[in-house]
User: Fold these one by one.
Assistant:
Number 1:
Amino acid sequence: MSSRDLQHQVTLLELVDRVLNKGVVLSGDITLSVADVDLVYVGLRVLLSSVATLEEQNAAAIAQGGLR
Amino acid sequence: MIHVYGIVQELSELPQLTGVDGAPLERRRLGGLELVTSDRAEAEITQEAVLDHAAVVEELMCRSAAVLPAQFGRPFGDESELAAAILARAEALARGLERVRGCVEFGVRAAVPADEPEAGSGVAYMRALLAQERAMTKIREPLAELARSATPGAYLVQKDKVSAFRDAVERLTAEHPELTIVCTGPWPPYSFGAEAA
């Protein structure tokens, strides 16, 4: 994977993480229906496991005895 | 349903964009705060909806003095529900707007590319871990110094310090060839509104 592709994928990951997990919770109803967002996550999981770029992923791997 | 993009301060004009599902954007005033919303028939989370939401929030960032992005996927049934939720948090939200005013967010992730730890070499493995932890600290501290606020992986940076922040990331990247450093942004301050709610 080129560094430009990596940057693009990480940007997409960071965007989805921010929109869905961060941001101010004003309450309202929690949406349970998730359609095709998992496509993004699947792609990103591949990215993370291949590059081990994110420190949380690294930490998790270390906690599991060096699994990658 | 009412889909909320965020709470804005001094928004010059609505972005020339449609919102999620192609719905027109609207400005609403509630309890001294201004919100940008659109109507939505269904509250489904799709990739397209997430990207459309993000595009609107980014435009709001560019056209306002401050924006507190709302978390996606929490629509309100009607105006009275929305008003009740906002009025109950109006003060905290106003403080949140002040905190992020004039700032953007950067994401900076760093990792030591994972070498396969050798099973028989516990000491070497622990040394590698220690080196990684020290390297992380070296990166976090100089970046946090340039930021108004920092969380693991995210930095709230005043707009006039953006180029200094970027320079610092570049310098750290050059100083630490052993690390993979990925910087993204500028983002709207998604990661720094949590205390407001």
Note: The mean pLDDT of chain A is 62.
Number 2:
Amino acid sequence: MFDNVWLIPLFPLIGFLINGFFGKKIKNEAVIGGIGTLMIFLSFIVSCGILMQMIGLPAEQRVFEKVVFPWIHSGNLKVDMAFLLDPLSCVMIMVVTGVGTLIHLYSIGYMHGEEGFYRFFAYLNLFCMSMLLLVLGNNMLVMFIGWEGVGLCSYLLIGYYFHKKSAGDAAKKAFVMNRVGDFGFLIGMFTLFWWFGSNHNIWTINFTEIKAASHLLPYGGVVTVATLCFFLGATGKSAQLPLYTWLPDAMEGPTPVSALIHAATMVTAGVYMIGRMSFVFIKSPETMMVVAVIGAATAIFAATIGTAQNDIKRVLAYSTVSQLGFMFLAMGVGAFTAGIFHLMTHAFFKACLFLGSGSVIHSMHHALHHAHSHDDAQDMRNMGGLKSAMPITFITFLVSTIAIAGIPGFSGFFSKDEILWQAFSNPFHGQLNMVLWGVGAIAACFTAFYMFRLVFMTFFGECRITPKAKGHLHESPLVITIPLMVLGLLAVVGGYIGLPKLIGDMLGGIPNYFEHWLEPVFAQAHEYSTQYAHAGGHHSHSLEWGLMGLSVVIALIGITIAFTLYIKNTELPGKFTATFPALHRAVYNKWYMDELYDFAIVNPCKALGRFLWKGFDVVVIDGIVNGVANVVLGFSGIFRFIQSGLIGNYAWSMAFGVVVILGYYVFK
Amino acid sequence: MSIPILSILVFLPLAGCLLLLPAWNCRRLARPIALVVALTELTLALWLYASWKGLAVNPFPQGFLLLEDAPWIPAFGIRYTLALDGISLLMIMLTAIVFCVGLAVSWDSIKERTSLFLSMMLVMEAGIMGVFLALDLALFYLFWEMMLIPMFFLIGIWGHGRRLYSTLKFFLFTMSGSLLMLLAIIALHLLYAQQTGVSSFQLQELLKVQLPLETQLWLYAAFFLAFAIKFPLFPLHTWLPDAHTDAPTAGSVILAGLLLKTGSYALIRFGYPLFPQAAQMMTPLFYSLALIGIFYASLVAFAQQDMKRLIAYSSIGHMGYVAIGIAAWQPVALSGAIIQMANHGVTTAALFCMVGMLDERAHTREIAAFGGLWGKLPLWSFFFLLFAVTAMGVPGLNNFVGEFLILAGTIKSSPLVAVLAFCGIVFPLIYMVRLVQEVVFQKERQPLSLNDLNPREIGILAILALLDIWMGIHPAPLLEMLHVPVQLLTGGTP
């Protein structure tokens, strides 16, 4: 099965080619959607086969590399198109193809009747191929193909409704900000490449080879430079401070795109990348600290903005940014397994939330359309009381909300609690640990608050759309609700493969399967970390229990506030905004980050471009040139008789001139 | 090999001009003749490519695969020396392809003086082939001028807008550069004669001249200026946007696809080997001009309203990367620069073709006139998107391979330059995305009734697109071809 790994990205590529070139002629939505879904499902089957085979192997043999063909060979630089299978890439391909299949299926229903249906599925397949290349690449450059490829597909899919200017602008923004990060990725890659090459004559950008040679890397120094560059790449792709502003705007794309690309897969690429290179990152304590701080800062920053948004998808977008912050926090405190675990559980519950919001929007749109109302179908202020009309959507949505809020027993609790505990107890950051934990805990409180605010505003209370439209509200068809149910189920049970040791012991020694599974991948990093980590890390069980309890209490506080504000005393939020108008404006306007970017970067660049062209190119350089030319033209007027316009004459006079000059030099 | 294939490559297009004479007034006959000649050239070039591994590597001149050498003007020691190595082979293939594209794309659009146009094209092809093959500097200079004059007429006769101004500007710029180069060639020749008592213009001979550093600097400066104008490097670039904007489509395709490459090619072939210390000393200047060019051209491209002008400025920016790759003078970066010359040639030629096709339909190239073409011209939009994405340097497509290698090599020799140049890779994305956004996507701004691409145009673009993809996914054979000459040039062992 391992040998067939190249099939995994190949199937979606075939789907892309079929739908891209013939989709327009096929026309039949069932066939187009069927092909798209089938292709990614086939990849899922192959991935399952690979997972099964890998489970059957002893832990130390779970690494496999497959070279498909040589790609760029120049001088010392030898890069092959090659894939790497190990427990980490296995987790990723399972998430990408599994969640991917469900979202493809969902899209058949959601995108029904859209103009360019085939285009959507072609892009979606192309995206899956790129994402699979990203997670399967055995060297940084193949990863980078995927890295840029997903950026491109994201651009195409955000801009899917290309007639809308806002969609186009959002797509552009996403692409450009991603590219800013990519620049960091490339520099990081080259720094490592030349460092190994010139110092140890090891010329490679291959992950396994770098891992094998990673003991040669110093702590800090060049590694800090390289990893900070890589991390810049991660902030672009995974929407962290300061490059996060594209993600909320990316909600202009169709909802399945938000679920697949901007929640479950692409935006987690940065987290995956750090995991893949954990043995390099761990060697720079400085970078680890930066990653942890940026992660925590993003988690709380985005969470605050999430509390004041009224667009259902925007709330989820900020939530995604915030949850990604949690994952980076985990990476930064050396809890790689916890980070990847949260990546996986987040993929389940956030995909479910996005798809659920899509189901709501779908229904709202339908109802408003029938009532000839022009209200915004995504604005939560127009919703309310949808739970009776859409029971399946409501239940799956609620389950996922509980999961993300961190209520015990649901998947999000296990992963998020693990991250908070590691932030508190890790042996790397000393006094900073308390701050990291505190910020994380407050962000978790905000998360519970804004998610339940969303649920209460959408599904509870009075229905705020016109009675005429209300009658048209209905549950979505099965093709939409089946993926919701599957993902909702995973949002509940997905966490049990990674039970914290504390709980596992209590339940009679259930091991943390997930941690064991990823152990060989991160073993190297943990070994390096012991070199400089101070001997902390021995915390009592009672402390761990206490913090776990505290994080549950925090989540409950968030939920209670949401309940008070949006169910019990619905006039309170209005009063609050009236009392603190400036604060509300700032939060509602996303702390004016977009305006800041426009002011500091975008507008100056535009103005400079115009100036250089009109001011410098045309006036200065051409001024000089034309001045010279005019003098020449003046002379040429005198010699006009030479300018006969016949090529022969020109050629002859030139040849003559050459001969004269040559003659002068030779015979002088 | 007994067949003088290099001479055939150079002189076949000229023979094609003679073939055109009987059909001078018959457009229907003249066009196929010219195309057949161009296709024959392409076949020869591909045949060379298919068989280059079987060719023995010549001991003299080192690293070359084929050599055709005969005395020409013995009085001055001028020889007729044509030679082929991996670098020139890549350039020959590019030339052959771009000319086929140039002829095919102007199949219908050149309606006046068609035969004159075709013969100009063929003369230019002969000249460019010669430039890429000549190893005798006098011969090289002859070809160098030979490709210039037809372009002058191409813009002057079949161009649009301020074509006379543009063509004159182009001519003056390039002419002044090449005159300086001519002086330097002659001076070099004389110095050689002084030192050895023999007169020669042959590169391999002239390499033996011992030059004091000061002389080297002066001579190199003259060469550099001529090549920098062709590149074009900032601030010698202003002829390019004008020439492109006013040139007919075929003119733009050849200008961007080939003429710009002659400058970089000549710098690699003659400039650096002849004046190594001087080149070394001028590297900081070269780097700075290239870097300024990248940022400057990109920013200006961002402000353009005319599609063709935007692509012209983007060309300056992309060639800045080639310049950086050469300035690094390091095997990986140099391979990257050479492969990037081919990549840029294909991609930019395609973009100019596409703008030309749009211009023929809508009679305007203003970005503001379009919008929402995806709905109206799906095929055109598809290809445009593909080529724009290529120009942005997305991996898996060819431009990425070149940029990647250039930066991979440069970061070794001068990290600061490489990092600055890396910053620059954001720009092509910004202005190309803007272009795509405003032309292909969004709502249509003016009701235009346009027909989508016809089979001829699809054929041209499909071939270029396949080349882009093929060179992006599987550049290994081309890189292998460049390996020996690049190693020899940079002083390594092949």
Note: DSSP finds 20 helices and two strands in chain B.
Number 3:
Amino acid sequence: MSETVIAHLSHCFAGFPGAVLHLSAGGRVIESNGRLERELGRVLIGERFSDVIDADSCGDKWDRVLAAASSTGATSTCELVLANGDEVLEPRSFSVLWDADVSVVWLIEHPSDRRMETVRQQVTEVNSELASAQRDLVRERERLAQALADAERSNRALDEFAHVISHDLKAPLRSVANYARWIEEDLDGQLTGEPRAHMELLRTQVERMRVMIGAVLEYSRSGHTRMPPEVVDTKAIVEEVIALLDPPSSMTIEVAPSMPTFIAEAAPLRQVLLNLIGNAIKHSRRPDTHVWVRVRDLGYAFEFEVRDNGSGIPVRTQDKIWALFHTLRPRAASDGADDGTGVGLAIVRRLVEMQGGTAWVESEEGQGATFHFLWPKQTESREGDGAAAADTAGDV
Amino acid sequence: MTVVTEANPAEHYATYLEAIRTGDRRRAFQIIDTARDAGLDLAGIYLGIFQPALREIGGLWQNNELTVAEEHLATAITEAAMARAYERAFTWSTDGSRTLIAACADVERHEVGLRMLCDLLDLEGWRTTYLGSTVPIESLAAMVLRLRPDVVALSVALSPHLPRLRAMVAAIRSTLGGEQPLIIVGGRPFLDDPSLAQRLGADLTARNAVDAVRLLGERVSRAR
């Protein structure tokens, strides 16, 4: 070999980005390109290479590889964990070459790609985080299912309670009404002045209570029976509702020209529209009442809107109107009008929420009110969703 | 005499090992699904399939038959397979009265055994928090102070990381003062020398996740 070639080779030996070591057949370091010395901060020439190997994880492995190299002469690749005193380093890969002529072993480190190492670490991290996230999801899903079951149970119990109470309250109330009437009959003509006024108040209150009990019953029954979805023409439903409410001719009810036809449970939708349009008519208190009904397609749901030009709802009571027995004008039965029982909006919210939708109101005092509700569309069969999710979640 | 026929993890172990050795994720998942369908419970799968398979993968590396990259892949597949098995086994039973925080002392290495412990405790109704290996010691101590768990579980795979584990134990002990959690430690070094646990300031150690679940069940009462 010419001197030039030797010079080139030794340059290559020194400049190689990984460790290159020349070992005796017994595993002692004869020569080194200095990489490993610099990294470990110790002299290796003359030392046994096994001194810098982590004995726990790969002492035996090194012995076997060395023995195999000198006996079979084959080139092999081997990953080793090096140790520098107490410090254990990351595993690295070496080629082991046997030079039969001079009975030496060449040990050549495969220079590692930092970026690949980083990527591998990141992947390990992400994988572990995914595994944790998957567990969190499982737990959260189970917790929700549990909460839902609890809520459904307590809803059912509440409904039963309301039903029983209402029924049981009716009988004594009927008795009170009867006794009052009998007292009046017995005292025919003798009841005057304050006692007479009190008697009248008693009758009014009994009537009020009767109406409220009826309302509780109505509320607890609402949405009790689920009907199979059918094709619903919302224009026809709204027209039907208007005919039923029979508004005075001075009122205008304007239904948007394009009203959708879709698949839904007809009965609750009809009830919701009846209550909202009925409210708009009832509470407007002006002869030129105008009511607008329209529907927007939001893709996943239909947004219904019932707007009126009535007196509006003060912002501070807008949350309260959905509660049972909340009426804007409490105990105002004296004008003789049917002032409602305060159950209409409670039923609206309940029916809409049973469909997975929501109901809300926008209003300013004196500016009319707009009631909105979302009616989710019937989704396609959910079969197969679960399997697909499980498959993705399990991916590495 | 009653004859009890039990689902045997050994039937699935060999095929699972082959699947993760060759990096075949889908096959691995399928084998675990089959094992579950055959009636094997989570503890059986963890101790009968995952744990010996990962030990064997480690052995194959020592025999120069596998690279570190292949070993990592096998571990990653097993982590995902565990999450999948956990998902199928999970039933909500937590009363939240017994709590555990788990962390590894090794840097950038995820101790599968610790994850197994958390999963099995979850199924027993414990509330567990698995922090993995990247959590700094101060954060661990702060978390223990905030959550006041009944148990802190620490693991270490490599002996050189024992000082870090000792520091973790010391940080928890000094942060909490009066009301100390039970500290359980595990991992390879404790298999060779169980008395190491006490010397490092921990309360107890266990040979495997199932043993740890049993021990903790005895030591930590449901009511607090």
Note: Strands of chain B lie at 99-104, 127-130, 151-155, 182-186, 204-205.
Number 4:
Amino acid sequence: MNFSTDVQASIMAILPEILMTVLAIAVLALDLVWSRARRRDLGYVAGFGLLAVALIVLLVGGPPGDETSDQLLLGGMIRHDTMAQIFRVMVIVAGGLSCLLTMGVSRLNVRGDFYAVLIVSVIGGSLLSAAADLIMVFLALETLSITLYLLAGYLREDVRSSEAGLKYFLFGAFTSAIALYGLSLLYGFTGETNIYRVGRALATGGLGDAPVVLALGLITVGFGFKVSAVPFHFWTPDVYEGAPTPVTSLLSTASKAASFGVLLRFLLAAFPPPELLGSLENVQDYSQLWVQLAVVLSVVTMTLGNVLALVQTNIKRLLAYSSIAQAGYTLIGVAAIATDRSGDGAAAIAFYMFMYVLTNSLAFGVVILFANATGSERIADLAGLSRRNPGLALAMTLALLSLGGIPPAAGFVGKFLLFRAAIDAGLVALALVGVVNVIIGLYYYLVIVKVMYMERSPDEDQPIPVSTPYTWALGIAAAGVLLLGTILVTPLVEWATEAAQSLYVLL
Amino acid sequence: MEDISLVTVVLMLPLVGFFPLVFVRSLTDQTIRWLTLTVSIITFGASLLLLRNFDSNQAGLQMVTDWEWISAGSFTIRYFVGVDGISIWLVLLSTFIMPLAILFSFTSIKERPRLYYALLLLMEWAMIGVFIAQDLFLFYVFWEVTLVPMYFLIGIWGSEDRIYAAIKFFLYTMAGSLLMLVAILWLGNEAGTFAVPDIIAQIQSGELSFDVSTERLLFLGFAIAFAIKVPMWPLHSWLPDAHVQAPTAGSVILAGVLLKMGTYGFVRFNLPMFPEASRDFAPYIAVLAVIGIIYGAWVSYGQKDVKKLVAYSSISHLGFVMLGIFALNSAGIQGGILQMVNHGISTGGLFLLVGMLYERRHTKLMSAFGGIWAAMPLFSGISLVIVLSSMGLPGLNGFVGEFTILVGSAGSDVLSIWFTVFASLGIILAAVYMLYMFNTVYMGALDKEENRRLPDLHWQELWALIPILIMVFAIGLQAGYFFDFMDNSVSQLVEQVSGSVVATAGR
């Protein structure tokens, strides 16, 4: 297997990162040049800059050719395929929305350095979506993580924020180290760093299950932490609650999406089902190992996430547990990708993450607005929101229905695709567990809707104003959630299916 | 892409009213009311055109629109709608009930009319959708969407325990629906399509066949969802709560149309798609149906609250419908379908009457009334007709339906005669609780001071009741006209259910 050395293709493969680096520098420069009053507009530059980059990736970020050998670029560090493209778009969109949401947070909205760090974080996520080499995987993962540690603790004078940053850092550093150990084991077993070569060497290496289980287990700790799968989830509620809300939004969307993107690629490439290896003989099948692991993680993650969400009184903690549960649903798709060749499982995950990024940005956007206006993040204080600002309540309802999987919000189609892939892969029992969890989940989503619409509060004659950047961010996210559940389903599903199929082309 | 059929037009008309209600902020309350009423009447008018264009000699679907909606690599979901002799009456029932519910709400709903009427129109859209959808995915979408407006209708405009009732309603129904979703996915994966006529054709031709246990599981997946909606004993416990707490229009829609979605589901999906399982389960379902008939009647008799009495009577009436459907012969199914319409009209009417009493006295306890015939002769006269129709007096609509059902169940190959005997007992019990109610509320001496000066019907109330009276007599005296539309579709269905049994016997 040779890597393409085409210069133009190599540049195109990292075009999004190049553009975002320029954007980050530009934001820093403007931070120096602009007066303090004007600096409030930095969020527009960063936010719409990122959204513009996302649009560019959407339009011209497709792969250079159909052959895998053309798509492995920069010495095999990057695989520039449709899967990378779709995950990059969602990660960058999530970053853009977070920038717009930051504009409502006093103390952060005038700081160019905050935006610059946020953009670097998005660069990490974007690289992670395309990483095809153990070293690149780790580097991108750390670029994403370290910047997020910074962002979570950015409000230094706020004790909760500092605590969140430190907690996230300690957990993150610990799990990163463990994952790194797993990655290094893989290198030790095979002598390769490119994940596709690792996969081939592993399959023909005759190692037996035990060492592979060890490596897989260690790496799972790292990814499990990033997607907040149980039992690596302990940081999630505390960090979500303590971090500045735009950062929480970024954590729950971009970071999670990018991690799922690389997880899919990594599992299929490094531990491939034997049929994907074509002509190789005497191959060993390690794919069932991670399928079983994904099934177990999925069941405990969604169940624990949903059950613990039931008792939350703080909206950010509730959304944290909800995001754990959502990771559990997504893992259903991960369990399905090994046996299913049509790419439905991977496509379902791509679709699910895409809608999830928009849905969660929408939900956190409303939370920030509400917290700014009232200083409260308690669910009970949302009472009467539908009278204080009907549009805001409607947006939140849309987000919650989408998370709960009720049509016409996009979350329904996402769950439909995930469960469908699971049943197609013969995992009917897993789909049933998922269904039971959806019902549990609906309860707490409905309770929030109930509080907003059906409970009265003494403050309900005080409207909650929505500033321009929020109108943009919430408008984009809400339109996305609604359209992706109705008329734009087909384009996204087609795109995701195309992306998924590229994932199955290993050589 | 073919032309838009009339069915699609009828479906989309409520949305034409919905969007201005949501987005045009300058409408006054009075405009909102009249706009909604006009839209619903136009929708009813358009659905009458369906009747005119319907060719009752044809058994299959008519006025079909079939567009591709979501197409992914391995499956296609279509916007596939049409009516046949089974669904056309239910579409008409939905469009018929809606203007009445809206008209009644003119005086009774003072709070947040914009949201209220928008939800009613959304409800109408989804209900029509349920009855015309011919693609399992599309059906499921509409099925779920009906929950959302009803959740708000009960939760915002209901009485004291509304929130509990709303959440119970939503979760109870959703639990069943999600099992159905798994069954839909399974079936769709096996058949390679979600279009119901295609699946039925595959099953009838033997192209798609399941082993006995799989077919039974699939049957149950659908059956539980529908049985909760009907509701069949012992899955009925959400119904009294929802009915009693819902605002009058909500109860009318719930009893008039939503419950029929369950019985319709059995006819449309369970019978033709799982013929063998239908025959196997028919006696068991019939047992539950008969228990429901007697239990519902018995509990009705014990109620002190007139609205609860009507709510429990629904369980009894729908037991008849289920008995007719699972007689699995023409008479039973036709009677069942007609009885769905009858129940919608009579019980819808009863809930309107209860609502009018409640408007005047703000209580629903029977003991608070007595002798109001003297105070409100017009109201009481109309009430008598509707009560008698609900009891099944010959010459009125209820009789025709129940009689045909009993003829069907007596002549059924799968049910023993005892079912008919016990079901007939239900008719007697119906007379008992209905006449007891009528006696307590309307007859006797006008001995309570508050009741002496109750105003009789005003024009809006009268106009909400007159169409019901017309239909009570029309169906009662000219039932042949209604049966004619069903004949061919139902005979085809009966062939589908029994045809494969013959094949099994020969195998």
Note: The first helix of chain B runs from residue 6 to 23.
